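haha ok so turns out i had the wrong file open the whole time. this is the CORRECT one, sorry everyone. sequence first:
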Amino acid sequence: QVQLVESGGGLVQAGGSLRLSCVASGSIFGLSYMGWHRQAPGKQRELVAGISSDGRTNYADSVKGRFTISRGNAKNTMYLQMNSLKPEDTAVYYCRVVVMFNDYWGQGTQVTVSS
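then structure:
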């Protein structure tokens, strides 16, 4: 089993910054991909950013230039630095990892951006 623990969500004013963290533990041998997704009320869950084991990254167009995804030295930790936050970034943010072709999801952390 794989356990994911997210942290760093909260309430911030528009233009502010937050940093999300996700730590993966358990049976993580073969962890190949880590990513952040988000789901706003009444909307479908969407990809925000992802990072592969070789460091390649991808971002949703809506966050390019504002968000940065990275992995820690231990490779089981992932971060999402979110700058210039907008009210439309308000959502529950979920950590997702792929281990041996299986998907695992965190419980989510709320990010609220006030105008």
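The longest strand covers residues 18-26.
again sry for the mixup
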